[in-house]
Amino acid sequence: MSERMILHEYAASGNCYKIRLTAALLGLSLERREYDIMKGETRTPEFLANVNANGRIPVLQVGERFIPESNAACFYLAEGSSLVPADRFDRADMLRWMFWEQYTHEPNVATLRFWYGWIGEENFSEVQRVNLPGKRAAGEAALKLMDEDLAERAWLVGAGLTLADIALYAYTHVAEDGGYRLGDYPAVQAWLKRVEATPGYVGIDA
Amino acid sequence: MSERMILHEYAASGNCYKIRLTAALLGLSLERREYDIMKGETRTPEFLANVNANGRIPVLQVGERFIPESNAACFYLAEGSSLVPADRFDRADMLRWMFWEQYTHEPNVATLRFWYGWIGEENFSEVQRVNLPGKRAAGEAALKLMDEDLAERAWLVGAGLTLADIALYAYTHVAEDGGYRLGDYPAVQAWLKRVEATPGYVGIDA
After folding, report:
1. B126 vs A130: CB contact, 8 Å cut-off?
2. 8 A C-beta contact, residue B147 and residue B185
């Protein structure tokens, strides 16, 4: 990875933070380029043509090439390190948690954080109001599933921190911004502290 | 992979089909165990305790261990084969498409197939009716993004078929079941034919 790497991001996004945390734990340096998603800066013709046709951040630029999707960018950075298990089954199990994060956790836990923190309850659309109870219940179920799993083990996969933990830490540790109560999930709270005690850890505001 | 492998599935699900197609292209044999999702057979206490606490299929059983999440199971089967690129950047780019599939394509393209084909328009809930226009638009945007990409290349990543193509083929080729018009996406249609011409290909009904 001798090529120059640039993270195209919106710093407060947990998806962008995942990539910064992965890089920090690996001792890799990333240039950072900020886009204001609230002003549509990732939907400009230039961004769509040159950075990501999907109009979203984060995107990890490696030389002149681009990797959208937070968990794919983390995988690119971490392959071959201890953040990706050497065992074939464990590696697939790590990806299992990362796909679960994007399908089941992020659309509920992260989305309510965005709705409450960036849009504001008084501005919710009809679609948001109708979806709120389902997203709340699904987010609580996701946190409960993590809590039950983490009651039996220190890390989501294997014997140490992997990208599965990083991917799920990003939005779990700020879940209260979306109205979730982390006190209901003691094993999750203990795991958050383990992640934060890892050498090289940086916070979302760093 | 000398261990016995069992696919816990609902055969008509595109997510389950991805794993069968991957196994077929690799010449691997899987036992198959069918669950009727319409009767709640993946939400029984036994299924939640023994197969997947998340209450969903597919789950790939390897010996006595279990891999939920379709794309993680495909990765487990295909690692080390030509279905996973040998180049580090391309491997991450393949995962990029697979995460995009689960976050942006499946919740729109697959979900409308399920709503129209399994629930029926006359039975749609209020939540479904309110979400329909947004899901239709997002699904069309996803197919358009694929079409623009595939207008410039034969396969989503690199020079041959990879898990990215398999993951996106599964629900794209049956998108019309959800009311999408594949005729609007000629490059996608040509790519579907390329996937179907691959030696070892099996259809979703096989």
Report:
1. yes
2. yes
Helix (H) and strand (E) counts for chain B? 8, 4
pLDDT tens string for chain B (206 positions)? 679 999 999 999 999 999 999 999 999 999 999 999 999 999 999 999 999 999 999 999 999 999 999 999 999 999 999 999 999 999 999 999 999 999 999 999 999 999 999 999 999 999 999 999 999 999 999 999 999 999 999 999 999 999 999 999 999 999 999 999 999 999 999 999 999 999 999 999 99
What are the structure tokens assigned to A162, written together?
């992997």
Which residue of chain B comes nearest to A70, CA vs CA? B96
Whether the predicted interface score ipTM is above 0.90: yes
Domains assigned to chain B: 5-78 (3.40.30.10), 88-196 (1.20.1050.10)
B72–A130: do the CB atoms touch at under 8 Å? no
Contact A145 B67 (CB under 8 A): no
pTM of the model: 0.98
- Shortest alpha-carbon distance between residue A127 and chain B (Å): 6
3-state class (DSSP) for residue A162? coil
